[in-house]
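Here is a complete protein record:
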Amino acid sequence: MSANTAIPSTAGLRAVCDRIALALRSAKSPVVAPEEIPCFAPAALRGDPNVSPDSLKQVLAALTEADVPTLERAIAAIDGNERAWLGFKVVTDPAAALDSEDTDVVAVRGKGMGSADVRPGIFLVVNPTGGRDAEVVFSRPPSKRDWFQMLDVTRGPWMHDEQYAGVAWKSVPLFHRERVFLLGAGTVAAEVERMASMVDFETTVVDYDPAYLNRERFPLSRHVLIDSFDAIPDLGITPEDYVCVLTRGHMYDPQSLVYGIRSGAGYVGMMGCAEKNERVFELAQREHIDRATLEATHTPIGLRFGAKTPAELAMAVVAELIQVRHDRRKAAAAGKSSGRPAFTLG
C-alpha cells in the first residue's frame, strides 16, 4: 500500500493567529504572507477584480490590540475544532463602503445602512448549525449590513462577498473538514471528488490500479493505492467519517461494503441497482454481517431524483452527504449549546 497525503491542517492557521496576536500586544505590525491565509493566496484570488494578495497587508495594517480577543477566540475555536471561520473585511472604496445600495429585496435600506466604517478588520464567526444565531466576534460594532455579510462568509468564500461596492469579505474555515472515503476510483468517484470538494468535504480515494487512481483523475484527494480490495488497510476511519462504495463495475462491492461497515464509519453507502445490491448483501452475510446492519446502510446510495449519468449520480451522492452532515450538525448543536452571545466585541 502507498498513500499520497496532502491534507491541509489547521495548525498553520493557529500559528498565524498566535503570531498576529503577539505582534499586536507588542504594538508591532503583523507580517503574514498571503500564502499563509488561503483566501489571500494568489491562486484563490485569480480573476477577483477587487481583492489581491496585497489586500492582506491593508487588513493587517489596520489591526490594533483591540483585535487580540478575536484572535484568541479563533485559537480557542481551532483547539476545540468548533465550526468557526476567521473573516476579513477588505475596504476597496471608502466612499462606496458607506453608501447604501440595498433594494426592497434585501430590506436593509436608508441612510447609515452601508458599512459601519471604512476600516478593514478581522472577525470570527462560530456557527455550528449555519443559522442566524451564530456567535460573531469583532473589535467594534458592525452595521446591520456588515453583520449579515459576516454571517455569509460561513456559506463559502464566494457567497455574497462582493454584494455591495466598496467592501469585500473573505474567510478561512478553522475546523477539520468532514472526511469522505471513496472505495473505487471510477468515473462516478471522480465526479464525487470534484463536487464534494466544492462543498467542503475532504476526500480519500482507494483503489488498486494506478491507471485510475492518479493525480490527473483525482487532483484534490489523498490517494491510497492498495494491493487488492481483499486487503484494505486500516485507514483510521471514525464514526464521523463517510464511506462510499463505488468500485468500478461493482466488482469489489462486497469486500468494500464489509470493510465500510467494520470500519465504524457513521455513514456507509453503496451504489447500484436493487438486484445487484441484494446479491452483495447475500455475499456480505457470508462474512457474518447481519441483515439489519446491511439494510441500515445507504443502499442504494444518494438522494432519489432520477440520476443516470456519472455527473448526475455524483450529484445525488453528494446531496445525500450534505443532508447527513446537516442533520449531524443540527443534532450536535442541540446537544451542546455554547451559551455565548450572538455578537461579542473583541
